[in-house]
Amino acid sequence: MAYTVPKLKDFSPAALDKAVEKLLAAIGDESDAVRNDADKKAFRDRWLARKDGILTQVNDLWLKPAPKEAKREVGQRVNKLKAEVEAKVEAALAQKPSAAAESAIDISLPGIRRPIGAEHPIIRTQNDIVGVFKNLGYSVAEGPVIETDYYNFEALNFPPNHPARDTQDTLFLANQESKSRREQLLLRTHTSPVQIRTMEKMKPPIRIVIPGKVHRNDPPDASHSPMFHQIEGLAVDTNITFGDLKGTLDHAMKALFGSDVKTSFRPSFFPFTEPSAEMFVSCFICGGSGKRGSDPCRPCKQTGWIEILGCGMVDPSVFEFVKGNGYEPEKISGFAFGMGVDRIAMLKYGLDDLQLFFQGDVRFLEQFG
Ligand code: DAH
């Protein structure tokens, strides 16, 4: 039972002694129980608060009602008691946390982790792919997302009005009529222009990968977005062959999707490579069978193969644009490739809607934490 200040009927010295003794016993017990800062404050308030603290009650219940003849005696005792209570409270406030209180805080527990967000699944996939090529000795290059017609098309052997441009319709910046065509600015449609930009700056041999955002005039749907991500690769040296291209990409696909996957190269066309190919990997979802149990495998459209990238041997006419920097088409050769990161991320995480990546829904993104 918590101590309460009794009303006094008897104001004799003996009765006062008893009452004081009880009060001191109570404050002793209560001060022993003080453990932490919150206890300290409660303890101080209970005993010393002006309004209704125990000392105030002692004043009201013991001193004020004391009969005239006992006033002096009671007054002296109450004053002494006040000094003792104040000393006790002061001592309790000054006290360090007790051993028991200290052991109540387990300092070996891990702290509260503040969420700092998660790597976006596209960036994570991009880093995984770049990491595979870094291990092969490739460096990373980057270039502007707002690009000139020259780098995006012309120097990659898409002449003005060439039909191959139609496959990469993009957004041009407005009000550029006064500029020559090669200087006109557009949102780059692929990361390939950074091939040219890098070759202008670095002499051969080079081995680079180029991650980045690209844009096309495609309305958004489950598999298209006006903005998406690519990783480009370029290796130029003396005597680079199509065998090097195949070996490098086959190794990279095994590192990314597992050592069981196979690669298949099929003829294709890109203005800046000759010969050109599309590379497929055997479907790492159905193992190449085209079926999942008795159901058709959707990601590979039942073919057992998934198209991953475009590639080829650098067309000598591309080297013509950077010839002055040591890229003489008669002396060197190279291969290039370009892949879509977003699609690879969708396959990797088993998603069927590309838009999920760009809607910023925290419930989706948190799953990659
Ligand atoms: N730039 C091409 C595209 O966006 C992809 C590509 C194909 C890149 C072949 C290459 C390559 O470097 O050699 O469709």
Describe this structure in words.
The chain starts with 12 loop residues before the first helix and ends with a helix. The protein is 37% helix and 19% strand. Strand 8 and strand 9 form a beta hairpin. The chain is of the alpha+beta class. It has a seven-stranded mixed β-sheet, with helices on both faces. It has a two-stranded antiparallel sheet with strand order 2-3. A two-stranded antiparallel ribbon has the order 8-9. The longest helix has 27 residues. Bound molecules: 3,4-dihydroxyphenylalanine (DAH). 3,4-dihydroxyphenylalanine (DAH) binds next to strand 10 and strand 11.
- Unreliable segments (pLDDT under 50, ≥5 consecutive)? none
Ligand types: 3,4-dihydroxyphenylalanine
Number of strands: 11
N-to-C span: 52 Å
Give the helix/strand class.
alpha+beta
Largest β-sheet summary: 7 strands, mixed
Q: Give the rounded overall mean pLDDT.
A: 92
| Content of β-strand | 15-25%
- How large is the count of helical segments? 12
User: How would you spell out the order of helices and strands?
Assistant: HHHHHHEEHEHEEHEEEEEHEHH
The quaternary state of the protein chains shown equals single chain
Shape: rod-shaped
Rounded to an integer in angstroms, the radius of gyration calculated over CA atoms is 40 Å
Q: In percent, how helical is the residue content? A: 25-40%
Strand numbers in spatial order across the main sheet: 1-4-5-11-10-7-6
